[in-house]
Specification:
By secondary structure, this protein is mainly beta. It has strands at residues 3-7, 11-12, 18-25, 35-41, 48-54, 59-61, 69-74, 79-84, 93-100, 108-109, 113-117. It has no helices and 11 strands. The model has no long low-confidence stretch (mean pLDDT 97).
Length: 119
């Protein structure tokens, strides 16, 4: 059974770059057909899909965040990374990684990483 676990800094200052890692166990991130999605939920708001990296390494991003977002992977460590630059307090959220067969198909989730952007 695949398991996903996010890790992040917890607190980031405005204008800095947020870097999150999703460590995957029980299945290779290169397994054919899977999309590895990054999703966030700001306090009191709904889920927002941010972007994804596919099993082949292709990346896709929501247009509103494309200029600030970069998804990557380390196949040797079976890890995914999301970087979000120039953060503001509006980027405060719980950040999740989720596996599925598409950009809106989320079959397995990590527990989420709480990130607060504050000076």
């Amino acid at each position: 059974q695949v398991q996903l676990q996010e890790s992040g800094p917890g607190l980031v200052k405005p204008s800095q770059t947020l870097s999150l890692t999703c460590t995957v166990s029980g299945g290779a991130i290169t397994t054919n057909g899977y999309y590895w999605n990054w999703i966030r939920q700001p306090p009191g708001k709904g889920l927002e899909w941010m972007g994804a990296i596919t099993y082949s390494g292709s990346t896709l991003y929501i247009p509103s965040l494309r200029s600030r977002t970069s998804a990557s992977r380390d196949t040797s460590k079976n890890q995914l990374t999301l970087q979000l630059s120039s953060v503001t307090p509006e980027d405060t959220a719980v950040y999740f990684c989720a596996r599925g067969y598409g950009l809106s198909d989320y079959r397995e989730w990590g527990q989420g990483a709480h990130v607060t952007v504050s000076s």
